[in-house]
Amino acid sequence: MSSLQLLGMKHSGKSSLGRLWAARHDWEFLDLDAVLESRAGGGRTSRQIYQTEGKEGFQRYEAEAALQVADRLARGNAVLAWGGGTISNPQAVEALRGVGVLVVLTDGAEVLYERILRGGRPAFLSESRPWEDFQSLYRERTALFQALSPYTLELAGASLDVAYDRLVQLWNTLPQVGKA
Questions:
Q1: 48 vs 7, which has greater pLDDT?
Q2: What pLDDT is stored for residue 51 in this prediction?
Q3: Where along the chain do its domains lie?
Q4: Does the predicted TM-score (pTM) go above 0.70?
Q5: What angle do CA 161, 166, 172 make, to 5 degrees?
Q6: Cβ-proximal residues to 128 (8 Å cutoff; 6+ apart), any chain
Q7: 37 in Cβ contact with 45 (< 8 Å)
Q8: CA 165, CA 84: separation in Å to the nearest integer?
Q9: Do 50 and 123 contact (CB within 8 A), yes or no?
Q10: For FRET with 137, which of 7, 18, 108, 112 sits at 20 to 30 Å CA-CA?
């Protein structure tokens, strides 16, 4: 039995693709941000937690959530969507890195930036230089993703169904997991 973890920048499609994979394979879908929000309490969103508790407080909740879901992933037949910034949290990465197959979803910086801003400017982008901040973050996180997992799925604006088909093709090349 295996599990799947989807990593990538914010708004790269991790949750949408994870939900589709879970539905089509009768697996459990886990969203690290949702688990984090539940642990933090108060009905706050991840964005609100980050804004009120800062990076350190947010990452503490995220690391606790990662430990919780790692146990579930170890039992197999589960797919996890990481938070967009989880890769920058060493404790969370350590909890998740050895459990299941980690696949990095990639898309162009411009595409992701546009998607992110549709929900308003997040706290990790400055008011004065949001695009420059994002480009820096994109380069930094892309390097971390590449160092963590050899499996990358280039989405290039693909529809959800096309992205799913590409993920199935990738999954079917992995000797340790069997066919999807």
A1: 7
A2: 86
A3: 4-171
A4: yes
A5: 125
A6: none
A7: yes
A8: 22
A9: yes
A10: 18
Name the token pair of 149: 């997992």
In sequence order, what are the beta bridge partners of 8? 105
pLDDT digits (tens, 9 = 90+) for 26-45: 999 999 999 999 988 889 98
Beta bridge partners of 104: 7, 152
- CATH fit for domain 4-171, picks 3.40.50.150, 3.40.50.300, 3.40.50.11090, 3.40.50.2300: 3.40.50.300
Q: What pLDDT, on the 0 to 100 scale, is given for residue 178? A: 66
pLDDT, one tens digit per residue, over 44-75 is: 988 889 889 989 999 999 999 999 999 999 99
Between CA 14 and CA 80 the distance in angstroms is 8
Distance CA 87, CA 91 (A): 10
Whole-number pLDDT of residue 12: 93
Instruction: Calculate the CA 107 to chain-centre distance.
Output: 13
Length of the chain measured in residues: 180
Tell me which H or E stretch contains 137: helix 130-148
